[in-house]
């Protein structure tokens, strides 16, 4: 299933989901003390490449937090599956769960079914990466239909630095009419 993609420079959708640490989080709004948000959609517990990517995200977390960018990972997994998965990852960032198919569609994600993974219990979102600025606008977006085509997190951190620094007064890339 494919869906219309979010446009760079658009207002990021207001989606709130429960997080493993308790309470709920907005996919678009950073926690207090941060002004930008990096939201990473991962496929779920069934995906070993997601485990590797989330562990790398843990390693890169200081690069993001030093720039005032909060980090949130999210999947369609249930609370139990997400918690079991995060035992292996030991994230230092919040992890949201329960992303629904309509929410996946709202984010413009590719959606795969049970036949696209092992130990899969329900349709799931393929990877997505979204960087939202302090105005709620989508600054950086990357959507993939496979788990092995994801952006390098070191380059994403550098890109956020460019957007927040020398290029902060330029239009958001990809928005020329």
UniProtKB/TrEMBL annotation:
One Pfam family in the UniProt entry: AhpC-TSA
Which residue range or ranges hold the Thioredoxin domain? Answer: 6-165
Drop me one GO molecular function for this one: peroxidase activity
- Keywords linked to the UniProt accession: Oxidoreductase, Peroxidase
SUPFAM superfamilies listed in its UniProt record: Thioredoxin-like
The highest taxon in the source lineage is: Bacteria
Q: Which InterPro entries match?
A: AhpC/TSA, Thioredoxin-like_sf, Thioredoxin_domain
Name this polypeptide is given? Peroxiredoxin
Name its species.
Roseovarius indicus
């Amino acid at each position: 299933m494919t869906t219309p993609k979010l446009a760079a420079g658009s207002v990021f959708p207001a989606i709130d989901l429960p997080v493993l640490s308790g309470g709920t989080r907005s996919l678009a709004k950073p926690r207090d003390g941060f002004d930008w948000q990096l939201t990473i959609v991962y496929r779920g517990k069934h995906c070993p490449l997601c485990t590797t990517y989330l562990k790398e995200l843990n390693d890169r977390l200081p690069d993001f937090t030093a720039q005032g960018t909060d980090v949130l990972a999210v999947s369609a997994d249930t609370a139990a599956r997400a918690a079991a998965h995060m035992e292996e990852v030991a994230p230092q960032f919040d992890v949201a769960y329960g992303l629904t198919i309509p929410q996946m569609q709202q984010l413009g994600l590719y959606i795969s079914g049970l036949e696209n993974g092992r130990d899969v219990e329900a349709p799931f979102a393929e990877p997505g990466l979204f960087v939202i600025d302090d105005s709620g606008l989508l600054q950086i977006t990357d959507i993939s239909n496979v788990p092995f085509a994801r952006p390098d997190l070191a380059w994403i951190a550098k890109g956020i630095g460019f957007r927040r620094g020398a290029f902060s007064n330029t239009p958001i890339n990809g928005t020329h009419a």
